[in-house]
Write a structure and sequence with these properties.
With 388 residues, this protein is of the alpha/beta class. The protein has 2 domains: 189 residues, Response regulator (Rossmann fold, 3-Layer(aba) Sandwich); 127 residues, Rossmann fold (3-Layer(aba) Sandwich). It has 14 helices and 15 strands. The radius of gyration is 23 Å and the shape is globular.
Length: 388
């Protein structure tokens, strides 16, 4: 070391000695990347949603980093596959949280995994849960962006009763809490619209033959089916439904049938198929158009199909950014204090969190081949009473 270098080091040490340890810690922390765990299914029943979720996450992180990151720190994603059972998901989350020093989580996965993760986190780390779900999540440090049954069904079921003259509903879903809890709520809306439930059943994720289920639907005389099957099970059921000759006379309504699932169902099997959601890739708002164009420009024509579940991951990062900046930290003590009233922008437009949930426009779309055509928009639908 020459005399000049030694002098510079001495001067630097002298300057730093006058700065408090707290400020020095803040400077060091700002220079450290902020690791965010992104928990998405890359395998299992929800695996078809994984690629679009990853793409949308990367888009959001690039935009956030271009704006200076979160709390002045560059964001780095740490992805984990949570397409398996809850026990596997919690192991993956622990490795990120304790092993990789992840400081916040975005989750797009099923509700059984969500329950396991809220038990794991216990309000110690921010956790933004993004997909459609059954409602009622109020855990400390947990923030929900996805549609609830109140949003997806309360305005839609009476509209279908009036406009499509359906009254007798058959309920079919996978055997876990999201379908069961959704259907428990749906029954009230069906009854209020003058209808009745003529059948209800729940199937394992591994089911691949639906002949007996379709025979029951036909036997009951149902004129509408509420489908809460996930991923591959939904594709298989809806393809079999059409081949069984039911699609011409029986309406199907899905609350988790998005563009990937519709592509799997196929144009020949999508007649009389409807979906209710807060986002479709082809909705005509300026924010949605800009997002769609940016996605196409970034990932190209062969990219994973844009859909509501992938888009929800983008909004999860955008919300976390807004929440952390408003709170001034990622401590859940601070974020819980300011969560209500936090405003963020996304492809669905401007949204404000209230009661750990978000009001949003709900779109009812009818399948037209392998594309959705929005036929009715219900404006600013609240998530219902969840935490009050």
């Amino acid at each position: 070391m020459n005399r000049r270098d030694a002098l510079q080091l001495t001067l630097a040490a002298g300057l730093l000695s006058g700065i408090s340890p707290q400020i020095l810690g803040s400077i060091a922390r700002a220079a450290t990347p902020l690791k965010i765990g992104v928990l998405i299914p890359m395998s299992g029943p929800g695996g078809l949603f994984g690629p679009s979720c990853r793409n949308c996450t990367e888009m959001a992180i690039d935009e956030i980093n271009a704006m200076g990151g979160i709390l002045g720190r560059r964001v780095e994603p740490e992805f984990a596959d949570v397409g398996g059972p809850p026990s596997d998901a919690t192991q993956a989350a622990v490795k990120l949280w304790k092993g990789q020093n992840v400081e916040a989580f975005i989750g797009m996965h099923d509700s059984a995994v969500r329950r396991a993760l809220t038990d794991l986190f216990r309000g110690q780390v921010p956790y933004v849960y993004t997909p459609v779900y059954e409602g009622g999540e109020c855990s400390a440090g947990t923030y929900v962006l996805g549609e609830t049954p109140t949003q997806q069904l309360e305005p839609v079921i009476p509209w279908l009763a009036a406009e499509r003259n359906v009254r007798q509903w058959y309920l079919i879903g996978n055997d876990y809490n999201w379908p069961r809890d959704t259907n428990a709520v749906a029954k009230g809306y069906i009854a209020a619209a003058g209808g009745s439930v003529v059948g209800e059943e729940y199937l394992p994720f591994t089911v691949d033959n639906f002949d007996s289920n379709l025979a029951k639907i036909k036997q009951t005389g149902a004129d509408a089916v509420l489908v809460t099957l996930v991923g591959g099970a939904s594709v298989g059921f809806n393809r079999a439904f059409a081949s069984f000759g039911l699609s011409g006379g029986v309406l199907r309504l899905g609350t988790l049938i998005e563009e990937n699932t519709l592509a799997g169902i196929g144009a020949d099997n999508s007649a009389n198929l409807y979906a209710s959601a807060g986002y479709f890739a082809n909705i005509g708002t300026e924010a949605a158009k800009a997002f769609r164009n940016a996605y196409a420009a970034r990932f190209g024509a062969d990219a994973a199909v844009l859909n509501s579940l992938g888009e929800s991951c983008y909004e999860g990062l955008k919300f976390l950014h807004a929440l952390a900046e408003r709170a001034g930290s990622l401590s859940t003590d601070d974020t819980d204090q300011v969560a209500d009233g936090t405003v963020f922008e996304g492809p669905r437009g401007r949204a404000t969190m209230n009661d750990r949930h978000v009001s949003k426009d709900i779109y009812l779309a009818e399948a037209d081949g392998v594309e959705f055509r929005v036929i009715k928009t219900f404006m600013s639908v609240g998530a219902g009473r969840n935490c009050g």
